[in-house]
Design goal:
Bound molecules: flavin-adenine dinucleotide
Largest sheet: 7 strands, mixed
CATH architecture of the largest domain: 3-Layer(bba) Sandwich
Helix content: 25-40%
Distance between the termini: 16 Å
Radius of gyration: 22 Å
CATH class of the largest domain: Alpha Beta
Length: 420
Amino acid sequence: MTAVHIIGAGLAGLSAALTLQAAGLSPRLYEAAPGPGGRCGGWSPSPGGTIRDRGTHLILAGNDTLCSLIRRHTPTEGWITLPPLFRFHDLTTGDRWTLHPGRGRWPGWLFSAGRRVPGVSAIRHLLALLALENRRVATVGEAVDPASLIGRRLIAPLAVALLNTPAEAASLPLLRRTLHQSLYRGGDALSPLLCQTSLDHDLIRPLALAVTAAGGEIRLRTAITGLTASAAGVTLHTPAGPVDCGTDPVILATDATQAHRLLPQHLPALPHSPILNLHYPLDDGCRRATPDLTGLCGGRAEWMLRRPGHLAVTISAVSDSLRTSPDLAPQVWQEARQIYPDLPAACPLQARTLTERRATLLQTPQTDALRPPVHPRTGGWPPTLWLAGDWVQTGLPCTLEGAARSGVMAADAIRQRISR
Ligand SMILES: Cc1cc2nc3c(=O)[nH]c(=O)nc-3n(C[C@H](O)[C@H](O)[C@H](O)COP(=O)(O)OP(=O)(O)OC[C@H]3O[C@@H](n4cnc5c(N)ncnc54)[C@H](O)[C@@H]3O)c2cc1C
């Protein structure tokens, strides 16, 4: 059986491994960290406590590649499917509304005032969606004015939540593809999927188990410190010595920064954008049985996820001044109290702030143009080396879906090459 070496056991690496196994190939993963999962990793506020996601991840049922992995390899009881409607709160005016798209493709829901953005007519909604289809402009901000009412209440929050990039600079084609995968397919594709415990517990561990159960190998705490690649094959360098892969295929499935460090002559350094998450423990007095997801505008945060015992707040594309503000946790807590008046006045002392400085690429048109394909055709590219990771050119933004898709694309390309 042909061995395929995969550097990195994040979602892209695991997705590649499972696709290769389905084609009868044998993956061997090398992971620098003590566990798989990369940016899907968890944290615990106390030793032995509940593991939570470092950053809340929004998954939609229309994320086809990811959802197919979830269906095939993870226990059903690990997932909660929420109805396809989105609550929003404007913190400057106090207005609340629920965006409630229909089940089909026909946007009839826009003609019902209670299901669209308040203060914005159905025609204005349609014009904004049409403007996002404009192929002659490159950024979201050029298509729809972020300061207009629909810009402020819908388009800019969507851009920053989906692309982790301010609307003014965010790539319009990337937003458009995400909308075509979700909003334009109708209700069911828009249903948010939440894991019961954490991505580590409900997604990554089952996927890693599926890889090893099918005979794959995951070598943890094995950092690849160097990579020599030529037409004759690839050699991986580890602190324990070199691994000669010969002409076996190799997939580089690290994050973009590590990939550039390993192959600076072939891969560009790409700009990144941070995400900050605030985690507030909630005591028994404010427990709620069902999770609640609320989008925000006019405040510091983009969205909040309230679950039993825990409130997680996400600030995408966080600015340096906000990230370093000493009063951020109490200020955001007061914003949360506008949405959930049952929360106590005092910010919990155990509130924690976690920032991922390189959460995703900064998803501008300029960065998108630099993302390499899974098998670059530039001169001198090693013939047995493929790429995977959310930063690779999949046509999708840097998301779980993009990472999962990149793994499938790399594995499919290898399968085709071998069968030729
Ligand atoms: C705070 C936060 C919030 C997010 N929110 C969302 C969201 O709401 N929705 C969504 O879809 N996406 C979200 N994302 C993005 C999503 O997490 C990523 O797109 C996805 O996890 C990327 O997976 P990956 O496998 O491409 O990369 P990674 O997860 O970075 O995996 C790369 C792996 O390679 C390993 N590695 C690196 N260097 C080496 C080396 N030299 N040798 C061996 N191993 C190495 C790393 O340890 C890691 O395990 C969020 C990310 C963050 C950080």
